[in-house]
Amino acid sequence: MRAALLRWYRRERRDMPWRREVSPYRTWVSEIMLQQTTVAAVTPKYEAFLARFPDVRALASAPEDEVLRLWAGLGYYTRARNLRRAALAIVAEHGGRFPSDYESVMALPGIGRYTAGAILSIAFGRPRAVVDGNVIRVFARLFGLRGRAKDPAFAARIWERAEKLVPKSSPGDWNQALMELGATVCTPESPSCGACPVSGGCVAFAKGLQDELPLPEKRREPTPVRWTCLWIERRGEVLLWRRSERERLLKNLWGLPEVGKVPAAPGRRLARVAHTITHHALTVDLREGALDGGAALPPEAGWIPAARARERLVSSLWLKCLTAAGR
Ligand code: SF4
Asked: Are 76 and 280 in contact (CB under 8 A)?
């Protein structure tokens, strides 16, 4: 079954920029970008990111704001900050060379078991497993395991199995083959068992359970959140506000000020925008704001030319607001 899957992967794998030339840095950046994000969304961002930051040292020496700008649109901005922090650590602690032992890789900011396994197996040829949602689904069906993909205990069972199965030779291809099978053949809905290279050994296929495994997730309703934000313009500049570390959403990023954060009164509504961020259903009312001329601005507030607001407002929430308001 292993040989059949590897043969299939080498024949059918999709062309992706991070597969054309493999290095620890390229694998790392692509894996971080691909977390929670589709291949189609990542591909152009990855190419632009690599063109600007071709290696660890280039990333380590870049200002954080520039890294965030190149990340704009991918969401989950903590990933970009951790990428830069990890690059700084690799330069400071490993002379700019990506470490190749599991403990050192796991000690880097933003790298967990999945990413460490991907870098070590794909770029260094080390027999480390990689388990993501695709692998959990494939294993659940292949071995007939009953459980929910998001149940940590079930995921732990899959990890255990995956670590036992990862081969010493071509572990990177093996891991990628499992993920590719899950992404293209053993899909969540209506898997293409007729085209599957491992259907001969698949428990779910033999028992007709491929649509029932893994067990369906319990639905979680998104938390509703309402913000009223202000568009405050003065002599061609707009007032932005840097959200703090304590914010629930979009922390440490520039945004439009919410009512109450700056001394300004809300006026006419410019737009209403609905947007979802990690299980939060946001409704943002964007209103014109008039500053209380006598009051001092808080240190988190800053003016920027209105024409350049989109460079600072990297979250797609703000870009949606600007577009809806015709700004
Ligand atoms: Fe998935 Fe069907 Fe292949 Fe089994 S036979 S691994 S259910 S695609």
From this structure: no
The residue contributing the CA closest to ligand 1 atom 2 is 193
**Spatial separation of the C-alpha atoms in residues 59 and 120, rounded to whole Å:** 20
Output the CA–CA distances (angstroms, integers) from residue 251 to 63, 78, 123, 245, in the order listed. Answer: 18, 9, 32, 5
Residues 209-245 pLDDT 10s: 999 999 998 888 899 999 999 999 999 999 999 999 8
Compute, in degrees rounded to 10, the torsion defined by CA atoms 124, 127, 130, 135. 130
How far is the C-alpha of 313 from the C-alpha of 96, rounded, in Å?
A: 31
**If you take atom 4 of ligand 1, which residue's CA is the nearest one?**
202
**What's the pTM value of the predicted model, to 2 decimals?**
0.81
How far apart CA 324 and CA 327 sit, in angstroms, is: 8
Q: How confident is the model at residue 202 (pLDDT cuts 50, 70, 90)?
A: very high
For 256-278, write each residue's pLDDT tens digit.
999 999 999 999 999 999 999 98
Amino acid at 15: D
**7 C-alpha vs ligand 1 centroid, how far in Å?**
16
Instruction: Give the tokens for residue 11.
Output: 């024949």
The residues lining ligand 1, judged by C-beta closer than 6 Å to any ligand atom, are 138, 141-142, 185-186, 191, 193, 196, 198-199, 202, 204-205, 210
